[in-house]
Amino acid sequence: MTEAWVAAAVAGIAALFATGLYALVAKESLLKVLLGLQVLGKAVTLTFVLGGVVLNDVGRAQALVFTIVVIEVIVAALALSLMVNVYRQTGSLNVRAIRRLRG
User: Fold this and answer.
1) Domain that holds residue 70
2) Widest pairwise Cα distance in the chain
3) Which of 24, 25, 45, 83 is least surrounded, with the fewest CB atoms within 10 Å of its CB?
């Protein structure tokens, strides 16, 4: 395993993580926030895969990745169901629309 390949992979993962974090924090639409959360999850998954390859422990990395994928699916399903309810109540998926919901 060459060090240049690992450095390039780390740079790509860092760019993916930064993109996901920006979409999670700076966007006004709930759909874009959810997509940012999914991109963040994929960056974490790639980090575990890269760590498993570098440390020659691919089996353990695979187990962690499968666990992360299952958790991501559950989070996405829950977030989508919450977005459907927000849309039914407010008529939009704007983040500011949630602030208008008071109990």
Assistant:
1) 3-99
2) 57
3) 25
Domain of 84: which CATH number? 1.10.287.3510
CA-closest candidate to residue 80, choices 28, 40, 27, 37: 37
Q: What is the mean pLDDT of each run of 10 residues along the chain (103 residues)?
A: 86 95 88 92 94 92 94 94 90 82 69
Beta-bridge partners for 29: 94
Question: What's the predicted TM-score (pTM) here?
Answer: 0.84
Token pair in block for residue 53:
């390859």
| Cα 77 to Cα 33: distance, rounded to the nearest angstrom | 14
